[in-house]
Every structure is written in C-alpha cells, then in structure tokens.
Amino acid sequence: MNDDSKEKFQIESLEVKDLWGRQDKRIVFNERVNILIGRNASGKTTLMNILYYVVTADLFRLSEIEFSSATIKLKSFSSRARRTIRVERDDENISVRLGNSPSAKAPLRFASRDDAYFERHFHRTIRDDGRETLDEIRTLVPTAWLPVSRRLSIPDPDDDSSQSSQWRNMPRRWRQNNSSLESVDHRLSELSELLHKYRFQIEQTLSSRYKEFEQRVLEIVLFDEERDKLPMTFPSKEVLGDASK
C-alpha cells in the first residue's frame, strides 16, 4: 500500500520523563496552533527535537538526548483512531514501540558519536521487526521542520561536500542574499519546489486517467457486441467432407 493512502495522525500530547535527569515535561497540544514560551535553556528546543525525532523514528538522534522515557499520543485527522508511541531509554539501550507492535531497540554504546560509521552500525543493530515498526511510525505524522531561529552556515563554494552541493543547487535569489539568509527561507524554497513536483505528478496522473476514460467511452460508443461480431465465414468440417465425395 502506498504511504500516501495510509491514515494520517496529529499529535495530541507529549510527555517526557527525567529530561536532563531532573525534569518531567508534559504538553497537551491545540489542534491548530501551539506556541511555546519560556526562559532560555528551559528545554523548549530540546522538547521539539524529541518530538520530531520520535515521529520521524530517528533513534540515533534521540539517543543523544538525556531522558528516561517519552510518550506521544496521536489522534487521526479523519476518524476516531488513536495511536501511542513510547520511547524507553536506560543506561544500555534505547527502544521505541508503537502500540503493541514489536519494539525497535538499539544499544547506546554507538550513540553520541559523530563518525558516520557508528551511526550506520547503530542502525544495523535493530532487528527486522523493529525496522518495520520504525517504518510504520514514519508514515503516521506529516512533518515539516523549519528552524526559524537558526541561520544557515554558508559553505565554501569550492567544497565538494554534499552540503556545498545543496547550497549551489539553491535558487540564485537565495544565494545572492546570503548575508541575511535564514534557514526558514531555504526550507520554504525546498517546500515550494516539492509542491511544484507534487502538482506535476498529479497533473500527469490526471492526464493518464483522462486518456483512459476517453478510450473506454469510445469503446462503449463504437463497439456493439451483437452488431460487430464476425460471422462464420468458413464452412464446417462436415460441409467440407460432403463436398469432397
């Protein structure tokens, strides 16, 4: 089944235990707009990171944050269905479970490492049934991450890294104004490009279905089974036998 056809959910609440080893946090979300207000270093960004990493099933990034458990409750946009995602973390492992599905578990000894090797090895330790759980979680909540308070780091134009490549591929109007370029501009530009691609895909699908519809209408109008069937144009074997005598 295509992920786009699966039921989508909105976030109802987030509960985090032992954040930084000393705080419990709980947020009940409004269905439309939510604004978090608090002192610097009170945990606003960290809570949003936890929320984002849970609904995108990014266990490696979650393992870099100190907490003992996180619970996210979801409710469907279109029905009364509800789902719960639970993340548990101890001194050795981090695991995530969706309802009663098999948990995805990985050891923390590979966490908090910058080397890409450790991140790959971290993901390899997750069992196949756990990977299926992670894949299902990723289809539940539509997300768009816009860190509006952070500026983009401008890479060296001669750098061949992927980050520099992404920068070169950005629209020229953004690159020309790099002195005040905010990451939200970049993200909105990416979203706009994705929307254009999505619209093009929809138009292609509609065009294909319209042609199929036209063909079926023509077949119905032009073909009549009783009128258009071929008559028997060859004599039967019995007739041929009689003629040869």
Automatic annotation (TrEMBL):
Pfam name, any one: AAA_15
Domain (Endonuclease GajA/Old nuclease/RecF-like AAA): residue spans on this chain: 11-133
- Stretches the record annotates as Disordered: 155-174
**Could you tell me what this protein is called?**
AAA family ATPase
**Whose protein is this, by species?**
Boseongicola sp. SB0664_bin_43
